[in-house]
Fold this protein.
Amino acid sequence: MFTMECLGVNEKNNLTIGGVDVSELAKEYKTPLYIMDEDHIRRNCRIYKNAMDKYYGGNGLILYASKAFSCLRMCRIANEEGLGLDVVSGGELYTAIKAGFPMEKVYFHGNNKTPDELMLAVSNNVGRIVVDNKYELSMLSELSGSMKKEVRVSFRIKPGIDAHTHDFVKTGQIDSKFGFALDTGEAEEIIRYANSLKGIKIEGVHCHIGSQIFEIEPFLLAAEKMISFIADLKDNAGIEIKELNLGGGYGIKYTADDDPVQYDEFIRHVSGVVCDLSQKRGISLPKILMEPGRSIVAPAGITVYTVGAVKEIPGIRTYISVDGGMCDNPRYILYQSKYTALTVNNPAAKGEKIVTIAGKCCESGDILIKDIKMPHVSSGDLIAVLATGAYNYSMASNYNRIPRPPVVMVRGGKHEIVVARESYEDLIKNDL
Ligand code: LLP
């Protein structure tokens, strides 16, 4: 049976997370409820940070990709653990500002940053703007003039790597809305152009080849292409790139079938390619950045639901409907993502029947888990869906005017609400 490192079972035979009884949390905070183990998040941050320190001799930085899960507390955790931050919108940037995140360690991504977002970033002295297109570059050059500030930039490059993952999360190949293609010469051209602009300081290049990737190979290929590109830029244009950001994308375990590589192993392999090739091409080792999101938070989170209606359609399927669904976890309806679920009481109970766990939205596709073998489940039981710490809360919506669940963090046996449950009043607060 698949379970998560931060889960356990107590003497009452109830599921625990970070040592806290999940049924007690459900009683106190109601369901649906996102629960995250803060100690586990911090442990994941440290695994990454220590590996970067070890394999790049301190010349590396982990940026937490806050799109996976952003809130004030999460920004503070990332900061306390010595990480930088990847933000991808004015909203994520604003959250970082309000959390007191050091702006020099914030990297601003996005394929269509608006003038207002760029203004917010430049006026707050964000560490790097990761330039995605020429329009953005021209806006930055103007802003730099009008605000009399030097803008430090990196460039989003498409290295042309087609990682084996779901179509919607492949971003490194040529047919992608993100960045400048390397193979067509577009990437070199834009960097040469940026080099001619006043107020723009070129610091780095960046690539991101996809998400939920298990193979090391595409990352090695991407690293190789990016180092070669940096060396070519130096040889052909005399432009020195000081930073290489290799993006995120490391896969995690959602079900027993998933077999992810240890993160530090990933970094060890990639560092081998980066260091060897830099030496071979005669360039000084750039500062290396990585941007994991999912792998830091997903394995630290679960969502707890109460079972409502149980509908048996003889010979066809049994639907177990819960009090949440696509509004708090749209990943099945978007990507047919697979999850594991446990009963909160007696989580080790043997599965006896294939069922489908459905949500409460007015939408047939509103499924959380299709065809999962579960023990007997009745109305009123609590079930926990595992590994929901990434891209669940951050992708939640108010579809059907369903309020978003709260996020509770457990730490050292204690628990605390870090994002409050939305109320019906919250739902209408912008209605005029
Ligand atoms: N850096 C960049 C530039 C990215 O675009 C992403 C994710 C990351 C870092 C972090 O990747 P991670 O380590 O989390 O895989 N909503 C989808 C995932 C979309 C990922 C988009 N970019 C999902 O739920 O699977």
Remarks:
- The domain at 109-292 is CATH 3.20.20.10 (TIM Barrel).
- The chain has a mean pLDDT of 95.
- The radius of gyration is 23 Å.
- DSSP finds twelve helices and 21 strands in the chain.
